[in-house]
Each structure stands twice: as C-alpha cells, then as structure tokens.
Amino acid sequence: MLPQSTWTLQQIAERLKLVMHGDGQHRISGIATLSDADSQQVAFLANPTYRKQLADTRAGAVILSERDASDYPGNCLISSQPYVSYAQLAEWFVPDPAPADIHPSAVIDAQATLGNNVAVGANSVIGPGCRLADNVRIGPGCILESDCQVERDSVIMARVWIGPNTRLGKRVRVHPGAVLGSDGFGLAWNQDHWKKVPQLGGLLIGDDCEIGANTTIDRGSIGDTVLAEDVRLDNQIQIAHNVQIGAHTAIAACTGIAGSTSIGEHCLIGGACGIGGHLQIGDRITLTGMSMVTHSLQAPGSYGSAIPAAPQKIWHRNIARLRQLDKLWRRLKELKKND
C-alpha cells in the first residue's frame, strides 16, 4: 500500500492518467463493488451486465468508460479500460509484505545460495544447488529440490513443491499447493507390464507468470516443459511433460493439456478444456469452456465443442433425435441412391 491511506479523486486521476468528472477534492480510502461501495470508496463498471447498478450505487466515484459516464451524474473517473484502471488502483490497497525473515525451522542446504532480502517460511526446505535471487519469498511448508533457480521478486506461497532443475523467472507468483516439475506420465508397454520412462528434462517458467493453487506442471521427459513470459494459469490445471505455452496466454481452471502439445501466444483457454497430445495450437486462439481438442488448430479465432446447458425437456428431446441421426443419414443416402 502507498504510504498515505486516503487520496483525493484529483490525485487518483493524475496518477492513473484518467479524466475526472465531479469533485476533485472528494477523498477515497478504499474500493468496492457498485452494489456495496460507500461514499469513501471507488467502484468500477467494466461488464455491461452490471450497468443497471449504476443508478443506485453509493460509491464516492466510479471508474467507467466514456460511454457509460454520459449517463452517470456522480463523481467518475473515465478510462478506456475500466477493469485495467481498477486493477491499477487496487494495487494501492495491497498490504505491505512482512519483513524478510528466515524461519528457524527452515532447512537450507549449505550449497544453496540466497540473495538479499530473501524470506523462507516455517518448515520449508531449500535443497542443494538452489539459487534464490533478491527479494524472493518462500512461504511455509515449501520444498525446493536440488538445483532450482528462482529469480528476483518472485513469491512462492505455502506448501508448494518444486522439482529438480526447475527455473522460475522474475516476478513469478505461485499459489498454495502447486506442484512444479513433477514426473510426466511416461510409460512404455513391455509385453505384459508397464515400464516407467525416466523423466530427464526440466521446467522453465518465464518472467511475470502466475501459477494457480493446486496446479501441476510436469517436467520434460527429454528437453524441457516451457512457459513463456506472462503466462497466467488458474487453479487445478494439469500441464503434461514437454508442453510449450506462448507468451501472454491465460488458461482457466481444471483444463488438462497432454504431453508435447504447443500452445501459441495470446491464447485464451476456458475452464475444463481437454487438449490432446502432440498438437499445435496457434497464436490468438480462444477455446470456450469444456472444449475438447483432438487436432491441431492454426487459424486465429474462437473454437468450442461443449454443449451449453438447456432445459431438461429440450435436452432429452435433442438427445433422442441425436440417437436417430445415423438412421436418418442412412435413410437419406438410400433415398438419394434411388433418385
């Protein structure tokens, strides 16, 4: 949080480079939603679904677009990207981190290297050959196996396991319970039993990436699994060995990506998608939630295969008709043959 605890609307507008309408001396001490905000808080309108709440909000000011501002008589901050401006303002209210400290119960191998202002939480283990750069923070109960590298200003939260030869870039955030660099699902069928394939690669995570809670990313079997810069992963995602994910791609919860698939830059992947192995997904591709991808996609655009929910009566009727599809197709083919 910035040193002061309240700001005038004029100060906020100047710092965020926004156009202000209303009382520039009105003081703000917090942020809230349109429905919950009081006169000392800033709200925002980014989703048109909530536009109807604008008339009744008690917010001291609202961040909104120029179009929406024309219908709002109160204090407002006009932004071409209201949600981005809200995110910038919200950073002012994030509590300062606790002073860097090495907890007495932490176990740090003598061959590990720690930079300046590094924090290591209770019961965490830093293995041999690990290198933690300046301002790295390791939460309680974490385990970093041998030869891990974490670059400056990265934050590893509680109970994270990081496997050997994993590299995290600058300003990476890893949420609780994540597993980075575990063995991939490498198995070879040997006549009457499975033979485990040794996983010899590593995991490389670029600058400014964020890894959600309980997400798992496998190390490479040969070569590395790679996340480029600014990749954002939600909770409970599975990324298999040797997957490559391009810069600025965001993936929602419960998605699974099979081994050796490559995903391009600026992609948006909805929740609970399944992506097969050894596929190529091009740049700027969007997959809607619960889509199943079984072949490569190259042309930018939106793709989807999930069937949206419908009233049960309509759903049952459609399924009954779907079951007749093959019979109807064969009947049509027979009719064409007889023409």
Q: Can you put this structure into words, describing what you see?
A:
The chain is built from five helices and 38 strands. The model has no long low-confidence stretch (mean pLDDT about 95). The termini are far apart. With about 350 residues, it is α/β, with parallel strands linked by helices. The chain has three domains: about 5-95, Udp-n-acetylmuramoylalanyl-d-glutamate--2,6- Diaminopimelate Ligase, Chain: A, domain 1, CATH 3.40.1390.10; about 160-305, UDP N-Acetylglucosamine Acyltransferase, domain 1 (3 Solenoid), CATH 2.160.10; about 310-339. The strands form six sheets. A ten-stranded parallel beta sheet has the order 8-11-14-17-20-25-28-31-34-37, with no helix packed on it. A ten-stranded parallel beta sheet has the order 10-13-16-19-24-27-30-33-36-38, with no helix packed on it. Strand 21 (about 185-190) and strand 22 (about 195) form a beta hairpin.
How would you concisely characterize the structure shown here?
This protein has 339 residues and is of the alpha/beta class. The longest helix has 14 residues, at 325-338.
